[in-house]
Amino acid sequence: MNSPVLQAFPAFRLRPPADGSASAEVVDANDVVVGQVDAAGGAYRGRVGTDVGPRRTDAPRAAEDVGVFHIALHATADAEHQPYSSVSEARAALSPIPLQRQEIVDSAARAYFFHALRQPHVAAILDGLEAIVREHDASGTRGGCLRVVRLLDQVREPARALLSDATGDEREWMAFPLARLLAFTELATARLGATASKPPSDLDGPFPDPHAADQALATAFRTYRDVQSGTRTLASLPDDTLHALAALDAAAAQLPSGPCAKNRADCRAAASALDELATAARSVEASAPDTAPEVRALAQELSAIATDTSARLESTALLLEDAGRHGSVRTILSALQDAELGRETDAGTRSVRVDDTETGPIRYTENGRWTGPGITDPYHSPEGAAAALINTFRARQATARTRA
User: Where on the tree of life does the source sit, at the highest rank (predicted)?
Assistant: First the structure.
């Protein structure tokens, strides 16, 4: 019998009802039943245990509600721990999370009446969602992805606690809104963690445009502000921690106040300032007492974001060095869109594949540049060298088509 895969949750399938049964089953990748879809009065509702989703006009949509409940109660399947393919995909996946706020507020008002916003878990969820809104652009570096993961935990933990505690009418009102919020945050957490480990091309290397660099710098500065806020809540700190915090303040004061990637000089100046900030953050982390775990965690987060952003600005400066030879940065990046530039090996080489053809590899030279087959004047950036090989390959293809 055909069991279609759920579009929103490919790890689950909808198994049609057996003869004489009004309920279809939702099964996971191991063919284990995780919930049912009940049909009545021309509508469909997903059900997991005693929790029931809203009325839907079609069975697949109700089956997705079963997937929502299952992920909320049991977390994501391993198959869903895949990195995002781009920064834009990561941001698109995060966008629905803050949109759940109004439904949480409305459902809490029905469940807890006038005390809804004073319910501790509800208040914590709303605070966490506000933080997610502020950090919408943070996923532009690997460290930024991990920052968003930490902030998602500040939504997931109270949501999971409230779902666990709610009973009776409270659960009837809150179960599905909480489950949907948890499903979104669970999936985003799993995939952002994987993305930080295996970043796509636009999360590593040079920034694709100056605005992306400015967003990453702004994320570093917000994280610095979080470290400051964390220390203000502490009654006292050791002298060495206070000295480290003073150095952190001084380093943050050197960060650019405007665009940071207009040209090579700006990129390198910003990268240098971020290196100082990362060093100071590591000193704060090392000197913070055991009684200040949040400050230590935030300082570690700041160090990672500053280091990632600095490395990307350095790569951007190298790319700008090569822009004149190709016409512009846009020309280089456009060439790379049609190819796959591999990661650097221990031998200092990177593959350059166009379709199924290896046009490289390119390699790192002793004088700090990049070269490859047919390149007589090495490039400053791996992207510049790769674009040269790609353009040569495309030109040969065009010539061959003309002759044919």
Answer: Bacteria
